[in-house]
Amino acid sequence: MPVTRIFKTEKELQDAIRAEELKHTVRFVKQWRRQIASNEEGLSPDGKRVRFEDEGHPSPVINIPYEGTPFIIINNEVYECQHGPQRMKGEKKDVLTSKTTKKLNCPAMIRIRRIMKFPEYKINGPSTKKAKMALSSTLKRSLSDTTIRQLVIYATIASNEEHKNHAIGENAGYCQPLYGDIIRKIKELAEEGHRKVTSVKLLLAQYVREHLAPDIPETNRRFYPTSKDIRNHIYHTVVGGRLVINLKAHYWSKGLMA
């Protein structure tokens, strides 16, 4: 059963998600995001509902308990396991690797609710409807750039037991899509002139150990790509770069570039 955790920054949240992915060799992808407030900086409750709690929702919706401090909801977000529900007929392409993948209806997900609290306006005394309405009105009238705002992120991160219909742990490492940073690093190395697969593989392993995930086994294909994957990404980087150069030369000859 997932436990709701509280984070104070986006970095704390993303670090926790990444730690869970690395621990169990899984990957979560963003499924949807419902934006309620326009942004998180300079946020005003004007036109937004000021709340003191948001409870009574059936699981798995995250309930926000009463603490006496008014807040507004910024957004709700859901991440699903990469092997989650199939919403398209047939097969689907992984956007990072261009490999064909099949969904396996894994129910594991991460649910997130972001709120902005106004701690200076905390209720002192009985929590009555009248007191809440009065404090909400005061907050909206007196809000300024100096008003203290506090971002709070509630998240329920799926446990290991919630993953179904696919391998987890070390066995899952053999079928993981490449991590985005690894793809970017291969491109960077290719652009620097590293075109030998063996050389790039050694440099990638060093990069993973020093900057990404030092404890990840080399069987994990998300961080340790096969020679074929490396060769493909080198090829696309080189060919893509040549195409751009040729297009620039073409437009230059036609007088279409200054």
Description:
The structure is a single chain. The strands form two sheets. This protein has a five-stranded antiparallel sheet with strand order 1-7-6-3-2, covered by helices on one side. The protein is built from five helices and seven strands, in the order βαβββββαβααα. The mean pLDDT is 79. The protein folds into two domains: 4-162, no CATH class; 178-253. By secondary structure, it is α+β, with helices and mostly antiparallel strands. α3 crosses α5 (227-253) and α4 crosses α5 (227-253). The chain is 33% helix and 17% strand.
What is the secondary structure topology, with strand pairs?
Elements: E1 4-7, H1 10-24, E2 28-35, E3 71-81, E4 92-93, E5 100-101, E6 109-117, H2 129-142, E7 150-157, H3 180-191, H4 197-212, H5 227-253
Antiparallel strand pairs: 1-7, 2-3, 3-6, 4-5, 6-7
Helix pairs in contact: 3-5, 4-5
Beta-sheet strand percentage? 15-25%
Broad shape: elongated
SSE pattern, N- to C-terminal? EHEEEEEHEHHH
Distance between the termini: 61 Å
Query: In terms of structural class, how would the helical and strand content be classed?
Result: alpha+beta
Helix content: 25-40%
Strand order of the largest sheet: 1-7-6-3-2
| Number of helical regions | 5
Largest sheet: 5 strands, antiparallel
* Annotation, overall tally of beta strands: 7
Mean pLDDT score, rounded?
A: 79
Instruction: List the uncertain runs.
Output: none
